[in-house]
Amino acid sequence: MSTHRQITTITYETAARAIAIAMEVGAEHDVRVVAAVADPAMTLIAYGMADDATPHSAETSRRKAATAASVRRRTAQIPEALATALPLGTGGALTAIDGGVPIYFGDQHVGGLGIAGGPPSVDAAIAIETLTRLGARTEGMEL
User: Fold this and answer.
1) pLDDT for the residue numbered 142
2) What single-letter DSSP state applies at residue 44?
3) Given strand 108-116, what is the order of strands in its sheet?
4) Element (H, E) at 77
5) Nearest to residue 34, comparing CAs of 135, 26, 12, 125?
């Protein structure tokens, strides 16, 4: 019987780079982005908020990142049967609002990225473009 397990997680350096990229991509879309990166245990690793971003987007981005890190899929791809139950069952800690994507390098799941500040479909596009520029996997997360 094993006495422990190892969890692969995103480094702060990579998470901070993801935030910087998300800010650039958001500006290209004229969105005042709030971006968060969480590790697989849903712990916030890095966070950034564009000037004049809406205050509620801070919490929304964190929830999107935690959800994508936990369920290992784009937040909009959560099955319909769980889309309402997930936020209710977690006291609002998780969300099915689009804009959260898991972060994979190859087959290694290392966390989740949450983008808020624009319409959910635009947040998702910013998140996917951020993954592309970061060099992370995007297969299965298409819009």
Assistant:
1) 83
2) E
3) 44-49, 34-38, 108-116, 100-105
4) none
5) 26
* Contacts with 14 (C-beta within 8 Å, 6 or more apart), sequence order: 110, 134
Write b or e for each residue in 118-136: b if 16 or more Cβ atoms lie within 10 A of its Cβ, otherwise e. bebebbbbbbbbbbeebeb
Instruction: Quickly tell me which residue has 């290209």 as its tokens.
Output: 28
Question: What's at 138, amino acid-wise?
Answer: T
Residue type, position 6, single letter:
Q
Task: State both tokens at 83.
Answer: 């889309």
Partnered with residue 35 across adjacent β-strands are: 48, 115
Write the single-letter amino acid at 81: A
Task: Give residue-wise pLDDT tens across range 91-105.
Answer: 888 999 999 999 999
Residue 31 identity (one-letter amino acid): V
CA distance 96 to 2: 34
For residue 109, pLDDT beyond 90: yes
| Longest Cα–Cα distance in the chain | 53
46 pairs with which residues across the strands?
Answer: 37
Q: What is this structure's pTM?
A: 0.95
